[in-house]
Amino acid sequence: MRLLVQWLTLCLVASLGFTAPADHKEEHGKKDKKPGHELHHEAKLDRCAGIEFDAVITNEERVLYFFKGDHLFKGFRGKAELSNKTFPELDDHYHHGHVDAAFRMQSEHSPDHQDHQFFFLDNKVYSYHKNKLEDGYPKDISEVFPGIPDHLDAAVECPKPECPEDTVVFFKGHDIYHFDIKTKKVDEKEFKGMPNCTAAFRYMKHYYCLHGHQFSKFDPNTGEVNGTYPKETRGYFMRCPHFGNQSVEDHIETEKCSRVHLDAITSDDDGKIYAFRGDHFLRRTGDKFHSGTIESAFKEVHSEVDAVFSYEGHFYIIKDDQVFVYKVGEPHILLKGYPKPLKEVLGIEGPVDAAFTCSGQQTVHVIKGQTIYNVNLKATPPAPVKEGTLTTFKKIDTAMCGPKGVTLVIGNHYFNYPSSMIMLVGRILPPPQKVSQHLFGCDH
Ligand SMILES: *[C@@H]1O[C@H](CO)[C@@H](O)[C@H](O)[C@H]1NC(C)=O
Ligand SMILES: *[C@@H]1O[C@H](CO)[C@@H](O)[C@H](O)[C@H]1NC(C)=O
Ligand SMILES: *[C@@H]1O[C@H](CO)[C@@H](O)[C@H](O)[C@H]1NC(C)=O
Ligand SMILES: *[C@@H]1O[C@H](CO)[C@@H](O)[C@H](O)[C@H]1NC(C)=O
Questions:
Q1: How far is it, in rounded angstroms, from Cα 128 to Cα 135?
Q2: Of 146, 139, 115, 114, whose CA–CA distance to 125 is shortest?
Q3: Are 117 and 128 in contact (CB under 8 A)?
Q4: By the number of CB atoms within 10 A of the CB, which of 216, 292, 318, 419 ranks highest?
């Protein structure tokens, strides 16, 4: 019901002519079949208001696309855009206004379809490769996936060895179908205790079922759900300001496990790690975590920082072309005279991507695009020196330096280098590690 209210509010805000949710999914327990009503194309869908998505898929760069009606959201913070900008042909079928289900083919048993995106609309399936519709498509679902019903709710790929064979898992109401890609054999399964999914996707080798504006992580073979689910999709897969009522524990859990990219990270001399994302920060002291709003702890900064580094008992927070300096220790007090222009403090024009200091050194390394500068913090005026170029990555989200060396964070992964020197000359990519799991001890 809460969803319905939110949805209604959304629609009312979006189009004043809206009268009744004649064909609403919530009321009928299935997807709406009529066009236009709720997803008027001028509608400004707000993903942070709590949306029940129709389908989710990743692109070639592993960026998630979330579909709702004739719109899609790209990544964790993209705004609603018309799906037909990216997938024009789906329009031929948009007389019903939404995608039922979608998955991405990764199987080596289907070399012709490797990396293709499949979309399901009514009884048709569309196959896209690099945003181009494959010749001969759309086709009937019964032709390409014999034994799989029309009007699906969700679909997700499950490659070996996560499933015993390369498989696509299809969802329709409470019915689950395992489609063996190689043999085309269909196994009907029962996923006891799992909600009906409106969308399903695989991300970093985990499987997620979306239902309402929540999600559950599930085992693609058994439908088993471990741990405390459902959770709010907004908290983990969207960059949304704090919403609704979350307990302190839930909130820490959200910040630890969120897939949304970090803005900044730093570790102080005691080895405490501070991570910043949107309007929140997470502090790790050994195995203990604390989470809070930037507004409450670093009030002058409000939210959305670009880079943070620690130096001689102070946090330097860089936001756009300003630097805020706070004393480490609570409450965080802004030093007199700050914020100051970044140009004045470090001699560099903003915005920057990351900044870090290594313990015992009096220089800060600043990363802007692929360039790394070195600035002596004792020198006035500051004289940035170009230290080198990052060749392995086009852009990073943030970086820090600690007892284990330099850590570069890119999306959901991080890479450790023994030193910034080795990072600059090294041609070998260190093994990627997961931010949520290995840095913050989240269980997935
Ligand atoms: C895309 O969809 C919108 C609404 O669904 C429609 O008005 C527009 O003409 C479409 N654009 C193209 C290029 O098909
Ligand atoms: C799930 O789908 C089944 C149909 O397969 C339907 O009977 C049931 O009511 C649905 N459950 C919910 C919670 O919508
Ligand atoms: C749930 O836990 C069991 C036993 O620990 C494990 O085998 C299974 O893979 C887990 N499922 C998920 C979805 O994490
Ligand atoms: C938050 O929870 C409290 C108590 O559980 C409740 O009184 C309040 O209405 C809730 N607020 C929202 C926005 O849901």
A1: 9
A2: 139
A3: yes
A4: 318
- Compare 404 and 211 and report the one with higher pLDDT: 211
Q: Which residues are annotated as a binding site for heme?
A: 290
Full domain range(s) for residue 137? 46-236
Cα–ligand 4 centroid distance for 240 (angstroms): 19
Q: Would the pLDDT of 9 be above 90?
A: no
CA distance 14 to 51: 14
As a whole number of angstroms, the distance between CA 394 and CA 391 comes to 7
- Determine whether the shortest distance from the Cβ of 443 to ligand 3 is under 6 A: no
Question: What number is the average pLDDT over the span 273-278?
Answer: 94
Q: In the predicted model, what is the mean pLDDT of residues 122-145?
A: 94
Residue 35 — very low, low, confident or very high, per pLDDT cuts 50/70/90?
Answer: very low
pLDDT confidence of residue 37: 42
Q: With contact defined as beta carbons under 8 Å apart, do 231 and 238 qualify?
A: no
Give nearest CA residue, ligand 1 atom 8: 84
186 touches ligand 1 (CB under 6 Å): no
Give me the amino acid identity at 291.
Answer: S
Convert the pLDDT of each residue in 177-204 to its tens digit.
Answer: 999 999 999 999 999 889 999 999 999 8
Residue 33 falls within a domain, yes or no? no
285 plus 164 within the same structural domain: no
- Give the residue whose CA is nearest to atom 10 of ligand 4: 245
Note whether residue 66 is domain-resident: yes
The total number of structural domains in the chain stands at 2
Nearest CA to ligand 1 atom 4: 41
* 265 shares a domain with 212: no
CA of 206, closest atom in ligand 3: 13
Using only C-alpha atoms, the chain has a radius of gyration, in whole angstroms, of: 24
Atom number of ligand 3 nearest to Cα 219: 13
Ligand 4 atom nearest the C-alpha of 244 is 13
Residue 17 located in a structural domain: no
Rounded to whole angstroms, the Cα distance separating 41 from 81 reads: 9
Please count the other Cβ atoms lying within 10 Å of the Cβ belonging to residue 182: 13
Mutate-to-test residue for ligand 4 from 2, 3, 243, 245, highest number of ligand atoms within 8 A of CB: 245
- Pairwise CA distance, residues 371 & 395, whole Å: 10
CATH code at position 371:
2.110.10.10
pLDDT for the residue numbered 8 = 31
Please report which ligand is nearest the Cα atom of 211: 2
Report how far residue 227's alpha carbon sits from residue 262's, in angstroms, rounded to the nearest whole number.
24
Asked if pLDDT for residue 107 goes beyond 70, the answer is no
